[in-house]
Amino acid sequence: MALLERVTTLIKANVNDLIDKAENPEKLVKQLLLDMQNQFMQVKTQVAIAIADQHLLEKKQHENLDAQKDWVRKAELALEKNQEDLARVALERSLTYENAAHNFAQQIEDQSHQVQLLRDALHKLEQKMTETKAKADLLVAQHRRARLAIRSGTTALKDFESDAAFDRLRLKVSESEALGLGHNAVGEPGPEQRLAALERADQVERLLADLRTKTAQQTR
Q: What is the count of structural domains for the chain?
């Protein structure tokens, strides 16, 4: 079906790529949404027609089934009246309607499949329309910024390089200051470091005194 092929093409369309390649993104988005809306209405109409056709087929099937049962009853009546020839004719007629009902059943199955395809396409197209509407403004804005960035790319790049060089210089100065402070700290210990050194020296002296006492006791 050509309609389903067109709908499938719209559903699979990559809106981002289309906008990126478009000369006029706003116009393209409007046209795309218009095409989707038109196809949506066509599919919706086809769904209604397909469902109506299915109901008609089901009605025809029921009519043939009723006719088949009616001819079977006639055959039973003829047989009760000892009219075998009439019973035979009635049964032949019943088979004709039974076969017709079977053919309608196959058509109903095919039609039901077609209805489901159309419903699925309608649902997917509706989702695509909703998604496209939701991000259309955002995509167009992004496209405008991208085009602006391309046009002003040289200036922007120079500004970026200038800012980057300044940041590197500032970082280098900060590192130098930190390194200088580190050297100063190593050259001139602070109060905390000096107190810690005194405590360590005192501890060593106590350990040494304990060792002397122990050695003196062992030599006596």
A: 2
Regarding whether 84 and 19 lie in a shared domain, the answer is yes
Contacts of 156 (CB under 8 A, 6+ apart): 149
Are 125 and 43 in contact, with CB atoms under 8 Å apart? yes
Domain span at 107: 2-151
Distance of CA 200 to the CA centre of its chain: 67
* pTM recorded for the entire structure: 0.57
Which tokens sit at 143? 């496209």
Is there a single domain that holds both residue 23 and residue 111? Answer: yes
- Note the pLDDT of residue 81: 86
Average pLDDT score over residue span 56-67: 97
Domain co-membership, 127 together with 188: no
